[in-house]
Amino acid sequence: MNCLKLESKKNRVLFREIFFKVKDDLLKRLNQLKINYYCQRNKKCCKIRYLTISAQEINTLNLQNQELANDYTKLFIPYGADDDFDYEKNNFIDINKNHEEAKKIDNNYVTKILDKLGKDVYFYYCKSANEEKCNKTSILCNYPTSVTSVLPDDCAYINWQKHCLQEINDNIQKEILVKLEEIEDNRLESYNCKCTGSCCKLASSEFCYEELKEKAAAGDNFATQFTSVFIPYENTEKVKEIFPEYIEFVQEKLDDDEKIYFYHCPHVTEQNLCSIYEERPQICRNFPNNPLSILPRQCGFYEWKEEVYVAALILYALIQLSEFYEDKISLAVK
User: Fold this and answer.
1) How far apart are CA 224 and CA 201, in angstroms?
2) Residue 312's pLDDT is what?
3) CA-wise closest residue to 251 among 76, 44, 4, 49
4) Which one is predicted more confidently, 155 or 248?
5) d(CA 64, CA 223)
6) What's the Cα-to-Cα distance from 122 to each of 127, 139, 170, 293, rounded to whole Å?
7) Where do runs of H (alpha helix) occur along the chain?
8) Residue 133: is its pLDDT beyond 70?
9) In this model, does residue 224 exceed pLDDT 90?
10) The whole model's pTM is what?
11) Integer distance in angstroms from the first to the last C-alpha of the chain?
12) What's the CA gap between 181 and 187, in Å, rounded?
């Protein structure tokens, strides 16, 4: 296994670990906001609650000693179930009947959930919903356990969800921008180009030259700058002469239906200098603005990449997760 493959494998494992750590930290931060809101005890969540898994699947999870499934089998019954319903012995529920019976309880809420989440949703009710005393378990006391849950319109925790959206938009995303600027400042202040010519001789894109020109014509700023200086190689063999190990590595990562295109700048001299340096486009002036890119070890910015790589992975994970939860919470509350 060559060094690029080893690096790629190591980085995939590292990113996976970072991603789940960032996810835990983000959810902890959002869940801390929940303490500002309180249940109004209208029992909507007791009389009708949804899951994306069936009673059969709950039983399977219960047999695997999953705590949530165990609580459901003790407390909740799916709508449309017979009087003698048993999660272990008689657990098939017709989903259409399930929806019909749930709509009789709260048509607006059921319709709202089905419209947002699709039809593969099952509705349940608590056995103690109409009783004064409640067998309080974690699924009752901690509800809603997810900030992305679709809640009844009059549920107090919708305000918690809106607060989380505000936290993501007003604070978390701004914090991301500040950290990205710090990484960029570090590059500008401490590192310089060593004129290896690698960025000029080996640019790549998932789009062919004709597609890039179409994007440029449609107003895409990056494509406009890129096609103003870079031109495609005649064939892959020409590219392999520049950096064979990198080309093989990239091609091995592609699926059968994927392709990557390589380009070079005709303005680079034999001394690896730019003959249009004062007129070069912004994408050249900013390169490399992404420390997650693969850089040759001889590149003057390679040590910068190594220095900020973990921080960049954390930010990349946080960007993905914050966008994901922003979309999911927005869907739930709109």
Assistant:
1) 19
2) 94
3) 4
4) 155
5) 52
6) 16, 16, 35, 44
7) 3-32, 44-47, 55-63, 67-75, 95-117, 138-141, 157-167, 173-190, 198-201, 209-217, 221-229, 236-240, 244-253, 282-286, 302-333
8) no
9) yes
10) 0.82
11) 50
12) 10
